[in-house]
Design a protein that fits this description.
This protein is an alpha/beta fold. The protein is built from seven helices and seven strands, in the order βαβαββαββαααβα. It has a five-stranded parallel sheet with strand order 2-5-1-6-7, with helices on both faces. The chain has a two-stranded antiparallel sheet with strand order 3-4.
C-alpha cells in the first residue's frame, strides 16, 4: 500500500533513443515536478556494479536501484510529483508508481537517432533488437504497471505531454475515489 503522504510517481522508460529523456525533462519543467534521471542518480549514489566495456555502459542491478529509489521517494515530503526517467525506471514496484510511460519509436527512427549519437553499429543493433522484442514494455507488464505507451516517431513532445497529463489526471481521480 503506498504511503498517503508520498509524492505521486510517473516513470518514463523505454529503449535508449525512444525519446524518454527529452519528454521527461520537458514535462518536469512545464509542471515544476521533480525529475530523477536514473543515469545521473546511479552515478551520484554510486549504485553501479562496474562498467561493461563491451556494451560501453554501467552495470546496474535493477533491484538495488529500485530499493534506493523507493527510499528516495518515501523520504521526499516536499514534492507533489516525481518523474523517474531511464530505461530501468519501470523496475520500481507497481505500488510505488502511479503511471508507467513506455516510449517507443519505429525502428528506422530509432536506428537513426542512435547512429546520430555516435553509437557503434553493435550498440545500435542491440537497442533495435530491444525495441523489436519490446523488452521494457514486457518487463513493465510483467510487473503489473498501469502503462501508457507512447510512440514518439510521429508525435511531438507537446502531444506526448498532453497524453501523459490526461492519463495521469484520470488515474489520480480514480485513486482519490478509492
Amino acid at each position: 500500500m503506498p504511503h498517503q503522504d508520498r509524492p505521486k510517481v510517473i516513470v518514463i522508460s523505454g529503449t535508449p533513443g525512444t525519446g524518454k529523456s527529452t519528454l521527461a525533462k520537458k514535462l518536469s519543467l512545464s509542471k515544476y515536478w521533480k525529475l530523477i534521471e536514473i543515469n545521473k542518480y546511479v552515478k551520484r549514489y554510486d549504485l553501479d556494479d562496474g562498467y561493461d566495456k563491451a556494451r560501453g555502459s554501467l552495470i546496474v542491478n535493477p533491484e538495488r536501484l529500485s530499493k534506493a529509489l523507493v527510499k528516495t521517494i518515501n523520504k521526499d515530503s516536499a514534492s507533489k510529483v516525481i518523474i523517474i526517467e531511464g530505461h530501468l525506471a519501470h523496475f520500481l514496484p507497481k505500488d510505488m508508481v502511479d503511471l508507467c510511460v513506455i516510449t517507443t519509436a519505429n525502428l528506422s527512427s530509432l536506428a537513426n537517432r542512435l547512429a546520430g549519437r555516435g553509437y557503434p553499429d553493435h550498440k545500435v543493433r542491440e537497442n533495435v533488437d530491444s525495441e523489436i522484442f519490446e523488452v521494457c514494455l514486457s518487463e513493465a507488464r510483467d510487473l503489473g504497471h498501469n502503462i501508457l505507451i507512447l510512440d514518439t516517431s510521429n508525435i511531438s513532445v507537446g502531444e506526448s505531454k498532453k497524453k501523459i497529463l490526461a492519463k495521469f489526471t484520470a488515474i489520480s481521480k480514480i485513486k482519490k475515489s478509492e
